[in-house]
Amino acid sequence: MELPEKLLKVVKQFSRLPGVGEKTALRQTLIMTKWNKEDLVAFAEAVKNLSELNHCSKCGMYCDDQLCKICLDYHRVNAKTICVVESVTDCLAIERSGNFRGKFHILFGVLNPLLGIGPDELKLDTLINRVSNEEIEELILAVNPSVEGDATCAYIKQSLPSHINVDRIGFGIPMGGSLEFVDSLTITKALENRRHL
């Protein structure tokens, strides 16, 4: 059965989202056909406004103006610690934990010469300048454990003055996890990241 072009266009756009196949996209589109006109217009307007979203001029987080809400938080303005993450979702995960009250810097990727992603693409010079300009004393590298992530962390550490304290977040066994079900690489990382009690 051939569906109307207006429906098919919406299905095609939904299918572009990660993890959304054609069946799910069609199901979502058909649900939306039951919405009233005002709700559809509000949904379309909200999606359209994504094109006007800005990046914070300091950390890279999404924002409406020049600075994001994290950088505008008066409790963090004088913080001397920056947590460096790969993505916005990593930043949000750390924020949800409620245990970090410093500043953030989002890289939007990691070094990967095979894909043409070098220091310029990640704007690492912006991070280095920020450390100097904001008199940062400590950098926490919350970059995912991978060959590219390790290379990115090593590059950042080499680019900073020696008096800056640089730490990498620990990796290993998740809370409530059982050793018998954990892969060998995770166990290796857990052993490397052990600490004295």
CATH class of the largest domain: Alpha Beta
> Spans of 5+ residues with little confidence (pLDDT < 50)?
none
Work out the helix count: 8
The overall strand count is 6
Class based on secondary structure composition and strand pairing: alpha/beta
CATH topology of the largest domain: Dna Topoisomerase Vi A Subunit, Chain: A, domain 2
Element string (H = helix, E = strand): HHHEEHEHEHEHEH
In this structure, how is the largest beta sheet organized? Answer: 4 strands, parallel
Per DSSP, what share of the residues sits in E-state strands of 2 or more residues?
5-15%
Task: Write up this protein.
This protein is of the alpha/beta class and 197 residues long. The chain has eight helices and six strands, in the order αααββαβαβαβαβα. The protein has helices spanning 5-14, 22-32, 37-49, 69-72, 88-97, 124-133, 147-159, 184-192, and strands spanning 54-55, 62-63, 81-85, 103-106, 138-142, 165-168. α1 (5-14) packs across α2 (22-32). It is globular. The mean pLDDT is 91.
In short, what is this structure?
41% of the residues lie in helices and 11% in strands. The chain is an alpha/beta fold. Helix 7 links the parallel strand 5 (138-142) and strand 6.
Itemize the secondary structure elements and their pairings.
Layout: H1 5-14, H2 22-32, H3 37-49, E1 54-55, E2 62-63, H4 69-72, E3 81-85, H5 88-97, E4 103-106, H6 124-133, E5 138-142, H7 147-159, E6 165-168, H8 184-192
Parallel strand pairs: 3-4, 3-5, 5-6
Antiparallel strand pairs: 1-2
For this entry, give a set of tags:
197 residues, alpha/beta, Helicase, Ruva Protein, domain 3, Dna Topoisomerase Vi A Subunit, Chain: A, domain 2, 4-stranded parallel sheet, two-stranded antiparallel ribbon, 6 strands, globular
